[in-house]
Amino acid sequence: MSSIPYALPDIGEAEIEAVADAMRSGWVTTGPAARAFEQEFAARIGGGVHAVGVNSATAGLHLAMEALGIGHGDEVIAPTLTFTATVEVVRYLGADPRIVDVDPATLNIDPAAIEAAITPRTKAIVVVHYGGLACPMDEILSLAERHGIAVIEDAAHAFPTTYRREMIGTLRSAATIFSFYANKTMTTGEGGMIISHDIALIERTRKMRLHGIDRDAFDRFRSNRPSWYYEVVAPGYKYNMSDMAAALGRVQLTRIDDFATKREAIATRYDAAWADLPIILPPRPLDGDKHAWHIYALRLDWEGVSEADRDAIITKLFDEGIGISVHYIPLHKHPYWREKYDLSPHHYPAAEKIFSTIFSVPLYTAMTESQVDRVIEAVRKVVLDQYNERKSLEEISC
């Protein structure tokens, strides 16, 4: 029996043909497909936002922070339970992250921890919508506005997530960054999108994504000015999205509602199948809101449960042919962040407990019904076996 991978992109013939068409057109770098994708994605988000396509969400976070003027001496608050890209971009700019704990119920950044971390140096807060569940944005935005601090949304997990029935990307944040990496809710292979209401921020990121040049190649060749002429207005970066990636993204975007429905259906099946196990299921969104279900993370929940139990379960699930991951090793446990900022586990009690018991199971739209069944059965068997084995050992020791 073949193994079930942790994640697999859902790419069909329409996507393949769209990429081939982009290649045949001669525009394989940033061109008409990239411009169309930006416009279509902004329209899908709604709320009159503007969009800039980039080659990764990491690039998008970097450009948004640069556009906000974040630099040496500044601080940016971010959660520990995230991928390193969320905060590594802060260091690119010479600023310092203030890494804080998360809410033990939602796994999203804890507003109380944000407030406690604010200093005169604080320039921005980066929120991560963990797994596709929206952070408590009203509370965070109000807090930021009181202190005159920008909010950036790392929405790598969160398309198409809503908060109080508003799309993530349409709120009062300075910028929202989406990811189209291979395992995300839609993909361009590698890629990301910067979303903002702020025209100045959008224009700055558009220039800075391509060496600080005032016009990209597509604009130059459409212009009345000589196509060879351009001006460098800032020392920029090389972060533009190719037309081949954008062509893939345009087709994926037309399928996002179907993708979201499938992800919700799988999450609902998992919830029902594992409701009686000694585990904590992922939190559900507010009534009327949408969870993107990029990650379906389980947490073991019995007295005396340990990291060793979690690791044993992961090993057994791999043996059953089920791809498993852990989201995430908290930032404060990684050598660079721990040593650079002298981070101690006792400052992160929620994330410490979460990490010791958490693991993520496959949830992707290309999964078949039989694959979902296999995951359900394997998780039930392995979790109960580990729980009963642990209880037996405890009884013997008594």
Explain this structure.
β2, α4 and β3 form a beta-alpha-beta unit. The chain is of the alpha/beta class and 398 residues long. It has 14 helices and 12 strands. The longest helix is centred in the C-terminal third of the chain and has 29 residues. The strands form 3 sheets. A 7-stranded mixed beta sheet has the order 1-9-8-5-4-2-3, with helices on both faces. The model has no long low-confidence stretch (mean pLDDT 96). It is globular. α3 crosses α7. The protein folds into 2 domains: 242 residues, Type I PLP-dependent aspartate aminotransferase-like (Major domain) (Aspartate Aminotransferase, domain 2); 142 residues, Aspartate Aminotransferase, domain 1 (Alpha-Beta Complex). Helices cover 42% and strands 13% of the residues.
Give a quick set of tags describing it:
398 residues; alpha/beta; Aspartate Aminotransferase, domain 2; Aspartate Aminotransferase, domain 1; 2 domains; seven-stranded mixed beta sheet; three-stranded antiparallel beta sheet; 14 helices; 12 strands
